[in-house]
User: What shape does this take?
Amino acid sequence: MIGVDLRAITQPVGIMRIMAAILTCMSFSLVATVGHVSSPYWAWCMFTWCFCFFFTFLIVILEFTTVNAKLPFAWDDFTTAFAMLASLMCLAASIIYPIFFTCKTCHRQIGASVVSWVCFGVYAGEVTLTRLRPSGQNSGFLSTLPGIMKMLETFLACLIFTSLEKQQYSGSPELQWCVAVYSLCFIFAIVIILLTLGQLTSYFPFSFDKLVIIYNILAAVMYVTAMVIWPLYGFHSNKRPSNCGHLCAWDKLVVVTFMTILNVIVYTLDTVYSIRLVFCVSNQ
Assistant: This one.
């Protein structure tokens, strides 16, 4: 039976969620009043604020009505993971938007950027509070280091997709391989997150942890190939144009290269830590 839990809006975490919902709505509204900009980075920032507002507001409503207790997955794990993801997304939006879309006289854009930074601070505060669990209390997969790295892998892949343009890779099989790597690794990482969040891993007739290790190794190797191939073929006979300003296609090649290198590091660390966790720690 559905009830009402006032602690959802009176406890520190609940107050932070209400603040985050208000702040993301403010950022979205300020930018919307300026007008639409035809840019994937603008779309990413708007998506970030809308996405964070919707799910933060939904979390508050579900906890206030106690519906969250009836959901078939680990609720605390989900909310902690969402707060981490939202803080990363707001951090990226707080950096990207002022770099590309503000100026000295753009007051509403500056206001949206400032509010977005405050929102990042609120989500980071929520992560800090939710991570301060009592000693001995179990945390879900997404609240652990492997889960955090999985979210970071998907987040970096989203930034890569935001910077991709079809003309960059449409005529190059080598660059198309890189796009395939980004897409496949992103899809499988999302599947792993959903299976773990839904507590479906126990239904596998084999060790799911070892399957994830195999995936991590393959993903790391595939990303290494993309890290080599993307700059090699993307920048071959392709110097930066003299009229290249903000949002230039050449600059997006640099962003994709940088994000690919970061994801290689994250996948490598994820692989090493998972192997240590499964084969070393579990055998002690």
Notes: The radius of gyration is 21 Å.
